[in-house]
Design goal:
InterPro entries: PTS_IIA_lac/cel, PTS_IIA_lac/cel_sf. With about 110 residues, the chain is mainly α. It has helices at about 5-30, 35-65, 70-109. The mean pLDDT is about 90.
């Protein structure tokens, strides 16, 4: 495996792992483990940035005459990247909501 195919698999791996970190962060926040949740979010952000750099490399190849149009693998990799971005946004909102609920529960009890 080399070239565009290798880049696509690297992108899929980084984006998929970033998404998993965000999902785990939500699970930790639900347990009230906010420090662990923030740590997982930071890890996910680093992987997401790595995925974006790979995506930029793929786009640069396309603009420099490389053939990336219509590749199912490229489309799948881009779909994974968008999915990771959406989970990052959702996880941030969910962790914030869990944190607020935890603070309210402490005040009530």
């Amino acid at each position: 495996m080399e070239g565009l195919e290798l880049l696509c698999f690297k992108l899929i791996s980084a984006a998929g792992t970033a998404r998993s970190c965000n999902i785990e962060a939500i699970q930790e926040a639900k347990k009230g483990e906010f420090e662990k949740a923030e740590q997982l979010m930071k890890e996910g952000e680093g992987l997401f940035l790595n995925a974006h750099e790979i995506h930029n490399t793929i786009l640069a190849q396309g603009t420099n005459g490389g053939n990336t149009d219509g590749s199912i693998l490229v489309m799948h990799a881009e779909d994974q990247l968008m999915s990771a971005e959406m989970f990052q946004i959702i996880a941030k909102e969910f962790i914030d909501t869990c944190r607020r609920m935890s603070e309210l529960e402490r005040k009530v009890n």
